[in-house]
Amino acid sequence: DAGITQSPRYKITETGRQVTLMCHQTWSHSYMFWYRQDLGHGLRLIYYSAAADITDKGEVPDGYVVSRSKTENFPLTLESATRSQTSVYFCASSERRESIYGYTFGSGTRLTVV
Amino acid sequence: QKEVEQNSGPLSVPEGAIASLNCTYSDRVSQSFFWYRQYSGKSPELIMSIYSNGDKEDGRFTAQLNKASQYVSLLIRDSQPSDSATYLCASRGGSGGSNYKLTFGKGTLLTVNP
Question: Quick one: which of A83, B23, B26, B94 could link to B30 by a disulfide (CB 3.0–4.6 Å)?
Fold first, then answer.
């Protein structure tokens, strides 16, 4: 089915481990985003991408790495997970650069770092 | 730093009443605004967008924008228990480049009592 999918839905990992969260969209949207959502902080932008091979930092990029070798995929890697990275992670995509368009979100990944 | 401010609530209204959700934004040149609904444990879902001063109606929802006051609101008429959710306000566009990024408020929790 067309859409934006995230995997896994739930992940428990240990401190210091590397973990990759996957995001795949079938619309060929140019713009993709990673947000984390925490109680009291709302949605905060981690990284975003305007096209394949073009990525940029958002508000809270430390400890995260992204890549975008193909338009449809935008994985997020936690290089060495910390407890403070326990959060719900949302991937989103947007069709157009023009500001009147919102995003479509994936269903999220709930990550727990123990 | 762009900011979007919302009252965290909870806002509690009886079934059938009008729910009024408010949002202010700091970047005077922000261009478009969005309301997302987020049920507990789910991803945000776009319900309204507005980019011109005035009102925009869609079914039971009315979005209002006042750029001079930097104020956005969402009215929900004939509120239903199924409207109980967190409502996120977001702005897009404006100063600082990258006008395709959304900046989110922390959300307002709405509870509609039967």
Answer: B94
